[in-house]
Design goal:
Strand order of the largest sheet: 8-9-10-5-11-12
Number of helices: 10
GO cellular component, one term: membrane
Protein name: Phosphate ABC transporter ATP-binding protein
Strand content: 25-35%
CATH architecture: 3-Layer(aba) Sandwich
CATH class: Alpha Beta
Number of strands: 12
Bound molecules: adenosine-5'-diphosphate, magnesium ion
Radius of gyration: 19 Å
GO molecular function: ATP binding; ATP hydrolysis activity; phosphate transmembrane transporter activity
Oligomer: single chain
Pfam family, one: ABC_tran
Keywords: ATP-binding, Cell membrane, Membrane, Nucleotide-binding, Phosphate transport, Translocase, Transport
Helix content: 25-40%
CATH topology: Rossmann fold
Largest sheet: 6 strands, mixed
CATH superfamily: P-loop containing nucleotide triphosphate hydrolases
Length: 269
C-alpha cells in the first residue's frame, strides 16, 4: 500500500484496489470545548488488516481511537468534528445511533474490564439483554466467541467461575471474546497488552493475527516491537497530528520523515 501524505490537503491516499473498512476525513477532537487534541486527521483503514497507531504519550492516539466508535461522546466537554466514514455513512452524524455504531465497531481497553460475573455471563449477559432467551443459542455464542479469542480450551470446564479470578491475560481475552460476540466488523484495541506479561502479550498478538482474517483491527501501542511484529500498517501520531502512515515495513525500515525514524528507533518518546 503505497500511501502518500499530501500536506497541502492533509490527506492520506490509499490505492483504490485496497478495500477500506473505515476512514476519517479532517477529524478533529476538542476537549473542554476549545482545546484541540486531534488536528484534522484524514486516513483510511484497509479491511482485514491490522493497523497500529504509534506515537509518544499524549500524542492523541487514544483520543483518535475513541473517536472511531463515538466513545468520546461519553466524555463531558469532548466534541468531535469531521467525518467518520463507515459503509457509506458518516457515523459522526448526531442522528446516527451510537449503540449500533459500537456493535459494528467494538473496543477493547487497556485494562481488562470483565464484569463481576461468571465467565459465561460476561458474554451471555449482553445477548440475553438483547432478547436471546434460548439456552442453546447462548451456549453457542459463548463457545464461538471464546474459541475466537483462543480462550475456550482453558475455561470450558470453568464457565461458572468468576471472571474476576482470571489472570490478566485471560481476562483480556475474555474482553476480546465479549467484543467479538456481537459480531463487529472492526475491533479497536487501546494498548490491549500493556498491563500483561510477555507470554500473555504474545498470545494476544497471535489471536490478533488469527482474527484479522475476519475482522479489521486498529490497535494503539507504545510497544514498537509489537507494532512491527503484529501490524500491516503503521500510523505515527505526534502532538495531535498524523505525521506519517504507511506499510509497517516501510515505517520501520525506510520512513519518509526524520521524526518518524527518530521515534521508531527510540530516539525520543
Ligand atoms: N478526558 C480528557 N479531557 C481533557 N483532555 C484530555 C482527555 N483525554 C486526553 N486528553 C488530552 O488530549 C491529549 C492526547 O491524549 P491521549 O489521546 O490520551 O494521548 P495518547 O493516547 O497518545 O497517550 C493530551 O494532551 C491529553 O492530556
Ligand atoms: Mg493512550
Amino acid at each position: 500500500m503505497a500511501t502518500t501524505y499530501d500536506w497541502t490537503q492533509r490527506k492520506i491516499m490509499v490505492p483504490e484496489q485496497e478495500e477500506i473498512a473505515l476512514s476519517t476525513t479532517d477529524l478533529r477532537v476538542f476537549y473542554n470545548g476549545t482545546k484541540e487534541a486531534i488536528h484534522g486527521v484524514t486516513m483510511a483503514f484497509p479491511k482485514n488488516e491490522i493497523t497500529a497507531l504509534i506515537g509518544p504519550s499524549g500524542s492523541g492516539k487514544s483520543t483518535y481511537l475513541r473517536a472511531l466508535n463515538r466513545m468520546n461522546d461519553t466524555i463531558d466537554g469532548a466534541r468531535v468534528t469531521g467525518e467518520i466514514n463507515y459503509e457509506g455513512v458518516n457515523i459522526n452524524d448526531a442522528k446516527v445511533n451510537v449503540f449500533e455504531v459500537r456493535k459494528q465497531i467494538g473496543m477493547v481497553f487497556q485494562r481488562p474490564n470483565p464484569f463481576p460475573k461468571s465467565i459465561y455471563e460476561n458474554i451471555a449477559f449482553i445477548h440475553r439483554r438483547e432478547g436471546v432467551k434460548d439456552k442453546k443459542k447462548l451456549d453457542e455464542i459463548v463457545e464461538t466467541s471464546l474459541k475466537q479469542a483462543a480462550l475456550w480450551d482453558q475455561v470450558k470446564d470453568n464457565l461458572n467461575k468468576s471472571a474476576l479470578a482470571m489472570s490478566g491475560g485471560q481476562a483480556q481475552r475474555l474482553c476480546i471474546a465479549r467484543a467479538l460476540s456481537v459480531k463487529p466488523e472492526i475491533i479497536l484495541m487501546d494498548e490491549p497488552a500493556s498491563a500483561l506479561d510477555p507470554i500473555s502479550t504474545m498470545q494476544i498478538e497471535e489471536t490478533m493475527m488469527e482474527l484479522k482474517k475476519n475482522y479489521t483491527i486498529i490497535i494503539v501501542t507504545h510497544n514498537m516491537a509489537q507494532a512491527s511484529r503484529a501490524s500491516d500498517n503503521t500510523a505515527f501520531f505526534y502532538s495531535g497530528d498524523l505525521i506519517e502512515y504507511d506499510k509497517t515495513s516501510t515505517i520501520f525500515t525506510q520512513p519518509s520523515l526524520k521524526s518518524t525514524e527518530d521515534y521508531v528507533s527510540g530516539h525520543f518518546g
